[in-house]
Amino acid sequence: MRKIFLLLINLISLNFCFSQNTNLVLMVNDQLLNGEITNLYLKFENENETKKIYVNYYPGDLILNSETLELINSDKTNKIYLHFDYKTFKKEKHLISNFDIELKKIMFQQPYLIINVFDFTDKKYRKWYQYLTNENYLPQIIFPNSGIYVRMK
Hints:
Layout: H1 2-18, E1 19-28, E2 31-32, E3 37-45, E4 50-54, E5 56-58, E6 60-65, H2 66-73, E7 79-90, E8 93-103, E9 113-119, H3 123-129, E10 137-142
Parallel strand pairs: 1-9
Antiparallel strand pairs: 1-2, 1-6, 3-4, 3-7, 5-6, 7-8, 9-10
Keywords: Signal
């Protein structure tokens, strides 16, 4: 019985060596995402190349493997982008929005990240936040001691 218990402990600890979860909550227009996202990956850019690594997401957890963690912590990595496609229906029309959100390395070391993307296909958010960007969306990244955007009236 003791050998089985030790074997189980070793298998669990081995699993944690190969992957790590980042506390991440993804939202679009103040709505928590459950299954509306596809094509989720991290894009790493350096001077010579760009590399995409697909990752898994469950509400509250972004699951990263050891290769992804090495790229995040690498000195060669200049920029990191989180990409995902958001699928919705509006007036019986199927819409797909693509989001590329730039993340800093320090953000992966925070106890939590909340990414709320304001999609400007919704007029309310366009009126509130369009003045801040030329894109079709605006990501608000919240972590301890971060700021928030001030909306226009």
